[in-house]
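Methods — Computational structure assignment.
A single polypeptide chain was analysed. Its primary sequence is given first, followed by the predicted tertiary structure written as structure tokens.
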Amino acid sequence: MVALAGLLALNLAACSGATLNQATDAARAAASVAQTAADLTGNEQLKAVVTPVLNLLNSTEQQVEAGNISAASTTMQTFRSLWDTAQPVVKLAAGANYDLIDKGVKLVLNTFGGEAVPTQNTALAAVKGLIGPLTALLG
């Protein structure tokens, strides 16, 4: 997309009789605008998929802190479906930092998906351990 914007700017500049420097400047400006638009679109897509996950984790954290582990476990039943939607976008956005997020997801799934009811401490550790990296990813 950025390359296409640059090529288009060069072609338009050449057709209008602009100098090579003007054409190059126009291409850089077009590439910058295209990159900014792509970054904003990607960030909005990231927010759109991560926000529901964070909302669920924050609700669960409040329930756990209030001592209502049963309600927290019930709330977390929808985590997997939300995460399945968010995971590809998060993985792409996180890049090399994805391993930390993946470990957090596995801990949450193991904590709330096992046969044993989690303790307040283990539930809080799991939820907070994922909230931190996901929040940091959003900036």
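Note: Residues 110 and 116 are 10 Å apart (CA to CA).
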